């Protein structure tokens, strides 16, 4: 029930539906719930995931509970917000209804925050051999593959075979690829030495493949050079201009300077390219909405889908230019800010207040960590790297976690790791699963 005061209550009690419980969806739900609006949040998972630290779960640095929080626990004090764990499968934008796994849901206002998924550039068969890193399930699969590779090497008698078992290939040198490759390098060269009797983790070969001319292309040349130096200090070999042409169960085929070669590697991880979520593709089709090359939906300055004033798209799924003409990046800050903005706009419109101006993005900078005491960051007013960058990165990410208990636990885990160089969640669980 709407809990706004009678003087402010709208004539009706409109139903606001949010699809997706990530950064943007949660920001909108919390803001609207705080105002007492009737909200239903749907997500196929029952938790919010702090994606910037997903790679730390994938490499055993953090347990799953430290970066994921149940949606209904976070929203429990907002009594006007209902959480449904259900996958949305269709939409009728004219009838204003959503079809989900457990029924039909009508809406008056719709906020879509389903994000993006990995793009294999039309080669979806690679997915079975090179998992990406967008979900908690992906992180656990990667952890099984990475930690399992070191365990498998210990079983081998032949030194050459052991070294071959410890070859890791990461495709894509954006923030996710750089952080993932750096974490694997740190595992091999800092954390694991001395734990095995036959295999030497320091013999691991970590290759970071990038089709473009530089790692972290969004950063300055100075920070890119520092990032590459940090990677090399952890034993990561960076290969630029390396275009992936094929991936199978035993390795990768790449083309460098027009010459093709094969890299034998039992562990290949994907961190290159994004595409709109499945529901995002469906929404664009149903609304006949324009999209960009990645399939993200082009929205106006108020995050609305053109032709459908009651449908907003936020976060990574939105191809949005703010009122200054700046392109809003697909980062957590963009999702948080667009989620809060749309909530503010809807609150003003529904209560007949003055609506805010078109959205304006506040660039708070970006950071990437490449192991302990190794990080680069563009804070807009200054650039940082090395241990200063690492400490700032740690502070920003601890404070970004949604629950206080998570902040405490992550801080303690990182402090313990900093002192002892030990990592405590390197469990190899589950079996290889078939991808569909």
Instruction: Show unreliable segments.
Output: 1-11
CATH-scheme architecture of the largest domain: 3-Layer(bba) Sandwich
- What is the number of helices? 11
What is the CATH topology descriptor of the largest domain? FAD/NAD(P)-binding domain
CATH class of the largest domain: Alpha Beta
**Mean pLDDT figure:** 90
Radius of gyration from CA coordinates: 23 Å
Q: Main β-sheet: number of strands, strand sense, barrel status? A: 6 strands, mixed
Q: Decide which structural class fits the backbone.
A: alpha/beta
How would you describe this structure to a colleague?
This protein has 436 residues and is α/β, with parallel strands linked by helices. The protein folds into 2 domains: 15-118 and 275-350, FAD/NAD(P)-binding domain; 127-271, FAD/NAD(P)-binding domain (3-Layer(bba) Sandwich). 32% of the residues lie in helices and 25% in strands. It is built from 11 helices and 25 strands. A 6-stranded mixed β-sheet has the order 5-2-1-9-21-20, covered by helices on one side. A 4-stranded parallel β-sheet has the order 13-12-11-17. A 3-stranded antiparallel β-sheet has the order 6-7-8. Helix 1 (23-34) packs parallel to helix 9 and helix 4 packs antiparallel against helix 5 (159-165). The radius of gyration is 23 Å and the shape is globular. Mean pLDDT is 90; it is low at 1-11.
